[in-house]
From TrEMBL, chains A, B:
Belongs to the Fur family. It comes from Rhizobium miluonense. Zn(2+) binds at residues 87, 90, 127, 130. Keywords: DNA-binding, Metal-binding, Repressor, Transcription, Transcription regulation, Zinc. Pfam families: FUR. One of its GO terms (molecular function) is transcription cis-regulatory region binding. Its cofactor is Zn(2+). GO terms for biological process: negative regulation of DNA-templated transcription; regulation of secondary metabolite biosynthetic process. This is Fur family transcriptional regulator, zinc uptake regulator.
DNA sequence: GCAATTGATGTAATAACATAACATATCCGT
DNA sequence: ACGGATATGTTATGTTATTACATCAATTGC
């Protein structure tokens, strides 16, 4: 899918996420945008819904947070699973793809006749810097 | 880890999960246990914490719910990742392990010097029965 | 036995995350 | 201009999870 022009609110939310060094919760985004006129959670959630739909933002289920896609110009998203390594110390997220894992899971799902629609692979732990 | 004797509250919560045909939210569990004297969310969350620690229950991050382990007597949990296929129609959950996926992810994490502590692999979609 | 510690429980209040419902406004094709 | 679709604003509410503090019960060390 080619990403359509972003609306005002979508741009504001996307900018905040792009500049952030770690995933942000919807309410953190809301707080960062109060000066730009944001007043209610829905303004954030609605923008996020679209950004997720366009694939330029990912939701990290295990920490109820959102992060800008690290590979915005690759087409991996369209044909592969995305995985995240999330550092619980510094918040840094490494987004990666692995076709081997992808194929393996896809095969298993097929063997079960399970029709996959959305997948989540998240590893929490400590990054190289924080593992010390 | 060998599972210690469960306390009264832990047993009640575990029984509810074991009898359930789909994952349950903490508040759903609470409602099911009101007749047994449960009055507050914390009674459920505290029991769940222990059951998760013992590995007899899993938390499904993507749907904020809990499910009894489907392989209580296997030792896969101690040396491998667990994955879940979750049907969004009937709620059925298939829990599975795949050493190939496991090794592949582990290798990648090692290459990044990322110290993994907790992992989540959840596929949402439709099971064979519901895909129709 | 008995204080001290530890683990489990009870209860109330609050925090954090997410959506429903309804009203306006803006954009766009005709 | 009109009508439909999309985006936005606002209030209220629903859902999930934790903090704080009190009480109770079992265990340990003396
Ligand atoms: Zn991405
Ligand atoms: Zn780190
Ligand atoms: Zn299990
Ligand atoms: Zn199903």
């Amino acid at each position: 899918m080619t990403t359509p022009m972003l609306t005002k609110n979508q741009s504001l939310v996307f900018d905040v996420l792009t500049k952030a060094e770690a995933p942000l919760s919807a309410y953190t985004i809301l707080d960062k945008l109060r000066d730009q006129g944001f007043r209610a959670p829905l303004q954030v959630y609605r923008a996020l819904d679209k950004l997720l739909e366009y694939g330029v933002v990912h939701r990290l289920e295990s920490i109820n947070s959102f992060v800008a896609c690290a590979h915005p110009n690759e087409d991996c998203h369209s044909h592969g699973l995305v995985a995240f390594a999330i550092c619980e110390s510094c918040g840094q997220v490494i987004e990666f793809h692995d076709h081997e894992v992808d194929h393996r899971l896809t095969d298993w799902l097929k063997s079960q006749k399970f029709k996959a629609e959305k997948s989540t692979i998240e590893i929490r732990g400590h990054c190289a810097n924080c593992a010390a």
